[in-house]
Design a protein that fits this description.
Elements: H1 3-7, E1 10-14, H2 19-31, E2 35-40, H3 43-55, E3 60-65, H4 74-84, E4 90-93, H5 108-135, E5 139-144, H6 157-176, E6 182-189, H7 209-220, E7 226-229, H8 234-242, H9 245-248
Parallel strand pairs: 1-2, 1-4, 2-3, 4-5, 5-6, 6-7
Helix pairs in contact: 2-7, 4-5, 5-6
The protein binds NADP nicotinamide-adenine-dinucleotide phosphate.
NADP nicotinamide-adenine-dinucleotide phosphate (NAP) binds at residues 15-20, 40-42, 45, 67-69, 94-97, 117, 144, 146, 189, 191-192, 194-197.
């Protein structure tokens, strides 16, 4: 067990029914006992996730219902999440929706919701959590960004744009809060087999929540600020980021 893991005991998950986030909590719990607060919309999903974590040995698990679209509730929600177990050392920000894929959206409302949840909502939650940690004893925020935000691609324009905004915000706050004892770890998974991607054709280097979780928890023991998962994804993404737009325009994925 690393020294970091032994003190970072209390975990708060915003997007507490996320398969990737729950795999990260399981991986954390596998390495040291944890107390966990799960926050999301789905009451039944939250209860089921809490039961599962208890069965894995989590010493305390609480749940809170909230909607990321209700921005006015965020300060109170984050305060409550920290109060539930008397504080928190690790926050996992997993709130996200995939929405319609492709380029120009056919459904404006869906596109707006994707931007509101993935950037405005998640960004607001990130700011609230960062403030709490800065004003307390510091800690770590794991932000689930996405490889989709690395470069605009026709396959996923709106989701990618929203994730790019969140990624940018998270890296900026990570730099700003570095000297305040707040670490922001930006995790950029590629395609992960979860309920979010059910029915979609897997992209190359497709992964599992457990694999992303191992990468993320391993990264907590380093001073890494940005993590691609799988780690090897950074190389094809480096190429994609360097490609001229004229080539990128021809790519459908
Ligand atoms: N799966 C992938 O291939 C992949 C790849 C890269 C990045 N990611 C990112 O990783 C994160 C987790 O994804 P996942 O694959 O684990 O999907 P998931 O199981 O569908 O998790 C999404 C989470 O977001 C929450 N959420 C969505 N809309 C919300 C809202 N309005 N208010 C509150 N919570 C809301 C969901 O909670 P509810 O119970 O309330 O619905 C759920 O906890 C997301 O940010 C996703 O964008 C996923």
């Amino acid at each position: 067990m690393s020294a970091t893991a032994s003190v970072q005991q209390r975990v708060i998950v915003l997007g507490g029914t996320s398969e990737i986030a729950l795999a990260i909590v399981s991986e954390l719990q596998r390495r040291a006992p944890r107390e966990v607060v799960l926050a999301a919309r789905d009451r039944n999903g939250l209860q089921a996730a809490a039961e599962e974590l208890r069965s894995q040995g989590c010493t305390r698990v609480s749940t809170i219902e909230f909607d990321a679209l209700d921005i006015d509730s965020h300060v109170g929600l984050v305060d409550r999440a920290f109060a539930e177990h008397g504080g928190g050392e690790i926050v996992i920000l997993a709130v996200g929706v995939l929405g319609q894929r492709g380029g120009l959206p056919a459904d404006l409302a869906d596109a707006v919701e994707v931007m509101q949840v993935n950037f405005v909502g998640a960004g607001s939650l990130l700011i609230c959590a960062a403030r709490r940690l800065r004003d307390g004893k510091g800690g770590t925020i794991i932000v689930l960004s996405s490889a989709a935000g690395a470069r605009p691609r026709r396959a996923n324009v709106v989701y990618g744009a929203a994730k790019a905004g969140l990624d940018f915000l998270a890296r900026g706050l990570g730099d700003d809060l570095h000297d305040d004892g707040v670490r922001v770890l930006v995790v950029r998974p590629g395609f992960v087999h979860t309920r979010m991607t059910v029915g979609l054709e897997p992209a190359p280097m497709a992964s599992t929540p457990q694999a992303v979780a191992r990468d993320a928890v391993d990264a907590l023991g380093t001073n890494r600020q940005v993590l691609w998962s799988p780690r090897g994804l950074r190389w094809p993404m480096l190429v994609i980021r360097a490609l001229p737009r004229v080539i990128l325009r021809r790519m459908r994925r």
